[in-house]
Amino acid sequence: MSYRFARAMLSAACLLVPVTAIAADLIPVEDFARHVMLSQPTLSPNGQYIAVNMNDVSGDSHALAIYNVGEMSRPVSMLRLPKYELAVGITWASNTRLVVEKGKQYGSIDKPAATGEVLATDLDGKHQDYLYGFESNYGTRAGTRATDRGWGFVDGQPTPVNGHFYMATQDWNNRDYSTLYDVDAGKNTRHLIGQINVGGMSFMVGAEGQAHYAYGFNDDYDYVVYHQQNGGWAKMSKSEVGGSFAPIFFTPDQRRVYASYSAGGGPAALVEQDENGGNRKLLANDGFSDIGYIEWTALPYQPFATIPAAGVPTPSYIDPNMPVAKLHRALGLKFPGSYVHFINFSEDGGKLLFGVSSDRDPGTYYLIDTHNYKVIKLFAVEPWIDPARMAERRPLRFKASDGMELEAILTVPRGTTLANLPMILLPHGGPIGVQDDWFYDGDAQFLASRGYLVLQVNYRGSGGRGVGFKEAGYLKWGTRIQQDLIDGVKWAIAENYADPKRICVYGGSFGGYSAMMTTIRAPGMFKCAVGYAGIYDLAMMYKKGDIQEDKSGRSYLSTVIGKNDADLAANSPDKLADKIDVPVLLVHGEDDKRAPFAQAKAMRAALDAAHKPYEWMSKPGEGHGFYDEKNNVEFYNVLQAFLEKHIGKGV
Questions:
Q1: pTM of the predicted model, to two decimals?
Q2: Is residue 536 helix, strand or coil?
Q3: Does domain 390-647 have CATH number 3.40.50.1820?
């Protein structure tokens, strides 16, 4: 029996079947726990191939896979990587040569972390070479690369492609320098084209192949920008940098630059300006949020459309009459309710790789021939997800208790009326510079599929609203940020969206911290709290975990949480456990590097000492968020049962 026919039969017989039978229509937990099989596609310069990151069924092993765009059933070649390692960056240095940045997946919450190793391979999988990293004992130049003890990152490439790329490096033994090389990916040779005695910098290269800008966060967690002048680096003043000046590309004539810029810490705009900062021209901005995606033409690169970082993504066209803008608009009409994102063109502009995604669709990738407009479907990110069964996500705005306008995203259970629903507050992790957006969210969709309204709040400290908004969260982890979340719940109750008697809070990482802190700051508001891979002792962050392992990480901590012991204790859930008045579920990976297992054990000990009820789930071998599919299935089942126990089944 087909799915649609079965649904029709169910509808016709709904008056004859017990209500509990409808539970059989629930989307299986396994669908939300499965690993994505293909990701990060990029089109070759000649438009004949795509390279993707490929995961095996277990999710433990990964490979770089090359496909002919006309035959996606089997790859042309694969570069297999060690267990748990994957490609976090894929760059076509030529039509036949690829550069791969290696990374590791430490948990489901964190993005894969680059290891600083750079490899290269031919299209057919031959001539694999180690270009940079700590494994300097193999590769074509292993004998002369013993000093490569550091991190390397792809930081751009010449246009058009010529077999080279730009590589920024950071030496482990001298972190006060950032260097940039022009690397021949085939011969594994390099020459220096930029160096500055400031660590952690990214670079922007001019047409002549020399670094013009260096920018990024230094070891003191200060954002800095340097400009190459008279053979040396000149630090740009705060008036020149504004809140967040960051160069992107040179204009096609190489005389001006495209950049992200905000004045006074407000939302970042897209601008065009002289290299020295003069004659700045505004191309796109949004009064509420930063510019989010920027859509680019084929070579020579020009921006033609943008979307804001908040709300439902609606393109604004810089020049609506450009042929590429008309193509983008036409494709948008072909995929109503979704956003079309141009990933990259072939160098002649004849082929375009683009993705289509939405609040209910994790995404699908297509190739279009820009001469005859023939479209080929390449692959879906999560083909087992049926967008028609997913829930709508609604970005809305509300006023916090001090008058600040904030964005909230509501995920509304399918087939319900937005009125008096059981609700889960779902704070995002980070917290600094991270945000929730309209696009598909697996946790929110899982909870909505179980009948719960989901509230996500882009509180102060979140990304997408400018530097000033982000910095408003500094030293406010346990106070103003938590109040923003609480104000969001009060707003949802006042609007009659949420049933005030059936509200729980669940979050991961910083969201796990917030799950505890919101119940402490707003007694009586919640009926239960779930902390997943959470931070519960702020002072411990200076002693354990990967953030504190280098100077820049320690500077980050002192900037965002402070160093005063009394303040840290006053904003640490494990020191305030006696104030938690709801049942708690603690879930943690025992090999977590970001939020060490000691954090969860400290929270558990505090709950024990305060004689507070809690449930416990931990898994050996798991990092910052569970990665094993079986563990994720178990976690979702435990989460569902815990919520049902304390606020009942969803609608």
A1: 0.93
A2: coil
A3: yes
